[in-house]
């Protein structure tokens, strides 16, 4: 079953339209990252799903149940959604235990059941024994886990996380993200989270949805969106690449600096560009190209090369020997990405 189905969602603030016509489907237990420039409407979408803002148009279904139809929708507490904010929104004057108890209030559980749930939830997030501490007595990562526990304690099937790691030290961020991914998976929770950070998105998410001006332009498995971007905007949003003019030879082939290569589908357009990520190029010593500069980044060296009348970005496993001057580029096997040219 799908955890979320959104059809043609439109909403905004006062007279300003923010989400133009958003549709989205996410299967149960998947983790989706919403990516896009600041102000494009990512947080607004989370608020719309959880029922925190009015909707102008569209339908939202959660686990098969319609929770929103145009203006009419269920109250936030009736949707079974956990919302985790960027600043954790923990109550500073309450202990960890009391923060979780506050989260449980809408469920009106008996005291013993509530206490059991709090204890088991703190164990799940690795904070057993910290229940009497106040938020200021915890690290950023621990506070974030309390925020997650406060949401988990209500046993949501869906969690929405708004930039959940932006206040976490960069060294702790990736281990914490892995931990949270395992937690969401082990508890069978579907999640949507907003991030500005592509590394975070790739580490936590199964799928990415890329926003452009109030719309989702592409949604799919993270590696598919990265390797087969729908347009130049998505391609460049997810990382660097070389844009190379190519010529259409047939419906299924283009002429490139490496000769004619097969392509799944060539757009019927005269002005075509091939998008090539730096790691899809192999730097070969010798030839009529020139190594202009390089930066060793630990995992690889980022090289700038002048070849065939243009400058290219290419990666090499290590720094090129300082004596290297003459180079050329080979295309590594990959599924080519062809776009209409910028004029097109
Ligand atoms: N309560 C509000 N009242 C009026 N306008 C708002 C309100 N909240 C957000 N906006 C506007 O709506 C637009 C989308 O905001 P939103 O917070 O959804 O963007 P975002 O993609 O999450 O941005 P960021 O990545 O910077 O968090 C922005 O132009 C913002 O200024």
Question: How is this fold's topology laid out?
Answer:
Elements: E1 2-13, E2 16-27, E3 31-35, H1 42-50, E4 57-62, E5 65-69, E6 72-73, E7 81-84, H2 96-104, H3 111-124, H4 140-152, E8 158-162, H5 170-186, E9 190-194, H6 198-204, E10 207-212, E11 215-221, H7 222-227, H8 232-238, E12 242-250, E13 253-256, E14 259-262, E15 272-276, E16 281-296, E17 301-307, E18 310-316, E19 326-331, E20 337-340
The chain binds adenosine-5'-triphosphate.
Q: TL;DR of this structure?
A:
With 344 residues, the protein is of the alpha+beta class. Helix content is 24%, strand content 38%.
Overview of this protein structure:
This protein is of the alpha+beta class and 344 residues long. It folds into two domains: 2-235, Rossmann fold (3-Layer(aba) Sandwich), CATH 3.40.50; 240-340, no CATH class. 24% of the residues lie in helices and 38% in strands. It has eight helices and 20 strands. Helix 2 runs parallel beside helix 4 (140-152) and helix 3 (111-124) crosses helix 4 (140-152). The longest helix has 17 residues, at 170-186. It is globular. It starts with a strand and ends with a strand. The model has no long low-confidence stretch (mean pLDDT 90). Adenosine-5'-triphosphate is lined by residues 13, 18, 36, 38-44, 194. One of its GO terms (cellular component) is membrane.
């Amino acid at each position: 079953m799908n955890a979320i189905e959104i059809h043609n969602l439109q909403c905004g603030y006062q007279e300003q339209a923010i989400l133009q016509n958003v549709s989205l489907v996410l299967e149960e237990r998947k983790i989706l990252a919403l990516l896009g420039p600041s102000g494009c409407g990512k947080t607004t979408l989370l608020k719309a799903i959880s029922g925190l803002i009015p909707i102008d148009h569209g339908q939202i279904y959660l686990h098969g149940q319609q929770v929103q139809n145009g203006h009419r929708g269920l109250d936030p507490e009736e949707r079974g959604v956990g919302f985790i904010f960027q600043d954790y929104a923990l109550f500073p004057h309450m202990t960890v235990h009391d923060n979780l108890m506050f989260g449980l209030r809408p469920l009106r559980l008996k005291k013993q059941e509530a206490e059991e749930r709090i204890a088991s939830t703190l164990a799940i997030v690795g904070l057993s024994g910290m229940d009497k501490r106040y938020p200021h007595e915890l690290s950023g990562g621990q506070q974030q886990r309390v925020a997650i526990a406060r949401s988990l304690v209500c046993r949501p099937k869906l969690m929405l996380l708004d930039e959940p790691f932006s206040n976490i030290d960069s060294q702790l961020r990736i281990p914490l993200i892995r931990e949270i991914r395992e937690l969401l998976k082990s508890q069978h929770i579907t999640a949507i989270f907003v991030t500005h950070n592509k590394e975070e998105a790739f580490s936590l998410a199964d799928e990415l949805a890329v926003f452009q001006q109030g719309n989702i332009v592409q949604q799919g498995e993270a590696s598919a969106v990265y390797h087969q971007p729908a347009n130049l905007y998505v391609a460049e949003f997810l990382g660097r690449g070389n844009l190379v003019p190519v010529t259409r030879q047939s419906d299924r082939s283009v002429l490139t600096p490496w000769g004619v290569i097969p392509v799944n589908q060539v757009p019927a357009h005269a002005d075509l560009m091939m998008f090539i990520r730096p790691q899809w190029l192999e730097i070969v010593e010798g030839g009529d190209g020139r190594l202009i500069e390089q930066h060793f980044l630990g995992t690889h060296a980022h090289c700038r090369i002048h070849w065939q009348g243009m400058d290219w970005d290419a990666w090499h496993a290590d720094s090129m020997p300082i004596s290297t001057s003459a180079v050329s580029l080979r295309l590594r096997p990959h599924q080519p990405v062809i776009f209409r040219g910028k004029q097109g």
